[in-house]
User: Fold this.
Amino acid sequence: MRTYRTKAQSAMEYLMTYGWAILIIAVVLGALFSLGVFGSGNLLGTACIAQSGYLCSNPTLTAAGALTFTYGQNTGSEQYDTWLACTATQASTGGPNPQTYGSPGWQGFTGNSLISGQSTPVTINCASATGAVFTGSIGQSYTGTIWSEYSTTSGGAPSIIAQVATLSVKVS
Assistant:
């Protein structure tokens, strides 16, 4: 009869030990979930993936929509009168039209020309899905596309339009 009592006591100790361990794990997971650790927005990193022949690195986006990044090209020829635009991925209407020179949203940068192999820091405004300048709060995610419009001859109107990068960044 004594062996049944020790087996029962052993079983109860086993259940209590694992019960407390499971309770502690549940509390920790609940705390992490409430802090937003498991939110999908936290999985999004900062990336600027350039097309072949272009450079896009170190992107930062302010709450007012100002995108600062390093832009460069290595296409083998000089690019004159360069203009850049940033459009939201989810944009359906409005915003810089990548097919229309001088449409709202296109911005030149200091120097406006790049020789092949050159890069420069650039700040432009990003467009929202409605075409207005993007505004967001700290930590908000933004995905979009960076376009370039340029000429291969000095003094000529920009005639070449290229998608130079895709962008994924959080407002900081």
The chain has two domains: 2-38, 43-170. The helical segments are 2-34. Residues 2-34 form the longest helix (33 residues). The two ends are 70 Å apart (CA to CA).
